[in-house]
Amino acid sequence: MDMKIIIALLIVVVLVVACQKKTAKGVQNIEPTLFAEKLKATEDPQLLDVRTSEEFAGGHIGNADNVDWYGDDFAQKAADYDKSKPVFVYCKAGVRGGKAANKLAELGFTEIYNLEGGIDKWNKTQTTHP
After folding, report:
1. Is 28 part of any domain?
2. Distance CA 130, CA 117 (A)
3. Which of 122, 127, 107 is nearest to 30 (CA)?
4. Which DSSP symbol is given to 83?
5. CA geometry: angle at 129 spanning 37 and 51, to 5°?
């Protein structure tokens, strides 16, 4: 095999591995239908909308609490939740939710569900909201 091809393949592999989402232990990124099912099946779910208060005011899922990922007090507010119970997290498109979910894992939460695609994907796939 030509050395240039080998180097090109190695670069592709490194880029693919480097670009994969890093998910902390205990975090599950799940699609809207499964997220809705787990949320509904959980008694008194801890549901965190990690968008800004302005975004939250524009509409949110069920009984979500607004804990702004960009807020200086995110970790402090998150610490008020029960780490031994499942926590459900979402944002607008999934990026902040993923970061917040990983932070919650760092804070000691053990069962974290992040909504893939955020509320945007939720709104496109859900006919009813819990």
Report:
1. yes
2. 18
3. 122
4. T
5. 95
- Distance from C-alpha of 112 to C-alpha of 45, rounded to nearest angstrom: 11
- The predicted model scores a pTM of 0.79
The label of the residue with tokens 């939740």 reads 81
What whole-number distance in Å separates Cα of residue 73 and Cα of residue 80?
11
CATH number of 93's domain:
3.40.250.10
Q: Is 117 left (phi over 0), alpha (psi -120 to 50) or beta?
A: left
User: Which residues are identified as catalytic?
Assistant: 91
Task: Tell me how many domains the chain contains.
Answer: 1
Contact 103, 89 (CB under 8 A): no
Task: Encode pLDDT of 36-95 as tens digits.
Answer: 999 999 999 999 999 999 999 999 999 999 999 999 999 999 999 999 999 999 999 999
